[in-house]
């Protein structure tokens, strides 16, 4: 076997024990000769780098040999060993009688011996490992270095551990808790099992005809490969989402036309990926749960569209934009800015058209906000629920093809009077709304959608008593929801205009793609 770094270090210290200067450079030269070609070793004129499993570590050669000698005179060791404290004595286990004629031990040899002793101790027991991941080197909150975390996850073997855990007996539970949960399944265990807990667990597993290779009994826990209760949890979760979807559909029932490709889609909640954008969390309270997150289009007084991140919590609504820093050390950088925060108590109503468009207006005591979101139905259902919880009143939804927009009062320019704007909706063609601003009025035209009395169905079938039947090959009747098994689209993160929507464009449904079913966090 080739010599290791510790062995080379001890060799240099032994051959140059009387020399102080030049020993470090001699060590560096020997390291370059012996292990310079190793893939995990690099060096330069002042030190070397070792590629550890969790990252690269650089070492400075200055004083390396001197620290390794670690000379501790015999009289000092005798003094420590004469202490009355057992702990102090255990720190100096050297046998002075046997070691007097030998070479003094170095720091490197002690490290090797301690490492070997640790491995021997670990092999005699069952260790439990705690994996610690460093998100940054600045030791500050909200500083997340994704490449560093990915590197640690890879070299700590966390993904492999999860795969092994899932492939094996992933479910584990203490005998007592297992008996308490499933005792009702048999007469012998309900209401109380009188015998040994381990035998009671075995009786329960055998009573449900579980194969012997599907479980193992340990000293205090039962280990099961695939617990059947996960099917029940999946059923409950699916039922909850279906109920949420139907409640959202009832908000617009007989009041607004629906889009063909959205009425049966799953509700996700988080369309931004809040875990990947911790910079947005700074505007939300520490204990506020984010029910809904989406990148929407917000129209100003000139009906110019800009991208905003819309966040909904049980207490407030947040509109977050991005601006360039004009001065200071971060000059030129684009940073998140809180554009508006609306408390639930200050919300008056929400206005929508009767057509299948995605535009809605949030009416607040001071001024209104004109927004457009593909996921408006999901947002409105969650908003109505949170509003009722906070105010004990139902959220007022107004439906009209002529909507009034109250503007924010400005103290400069020709628009300083504040005033109002109007949004008018007209019957057009296609499923994509066409916006045409004219002075203080925004004209919106869009083709007809599903009838107002359309409702979603648990099996994904659109229910409408007035919908005429179609031929088997008809594209409209065979069109399935685009929301199943599609990846999350790359939502715009930078501020941009909405002028491309002001004229007729070819129809595109790419913006309707959503991720697999999950939950907002």
TrEMBL record:
Keywords: Actin-binding, ATP-binding, Motor protein, Myosin, Nucleotide-binding. One of its GO terms (cellular component) is microvillus. It comes from the Eukaryota. Residues 474-484, 493-507 have a biased composition (Polar residues). SMART domains: MYSc. Pfam families: Myosin_head, Myosin_TH1. The keyword Nucleotide-binding applies. GO terms for biological process: actin filament organization; endocytosis; glomerulus development. Residues 464-521 are annotated as: Disordered. Residues 1-240 form the Myosin motor domain. GO terms for molecular function: actin filament binding; ATP binding; microfilament motor activity. Residues 115-137 are annotated as: Actin-binding. Belongs to the TRAFAC class myosin-kinesin ATPase superfamily. Myosin family. This is Myosin IE. It comes from Myodes glareolus.
